[in-house]
Every structure is written in C-alpha cells, then in structure tokens.
Fold this sequence. Notes:
By secondary structure, the protein is mainly alpha-helical. The chain has 3 helices and no strands. The protein has helices spanning 3-10, 14-21, 30-40. The protein is globular, with a radius of gyration of 11 Å. 6% of the residues are buried. The model has no long low-confidence stretch (mean pLDDT 90).
Amino acid sequence: MSVTERSERVGITRANLSILKNGKAKAIRFSTLEALCKARDCPPKALLEYREDK
C-alpha cells in the first residue's frame, strides 16, 4: 500500500503519516492509532516502541 493510499485510509495527511513513519512524532492521537491498526490489521504493540528520554 502506498503512502497516499494509507493516508487516505487512515484519514491523516501524507506529511503527518511520514512523520509517524520516520519516528519523529512526539505524540499520536488514540483515534489515529486505532485507524492505523485497522488499516494494517494489527495490534498497537506492532506499531509502537518505547524509548527513554536521553
């Protein structure tokens, strides 16, 4: 699935999807996380990674 297709399916802009994809997001809305999980048919733990602050 292309970035454009995924952004349309999830309901966020390509720019915001790119920020999430590249790990530069500081936060994510639960509704966005839910939409991403539905689009990928996966649980949240498949998309999230915990990183301690430096």
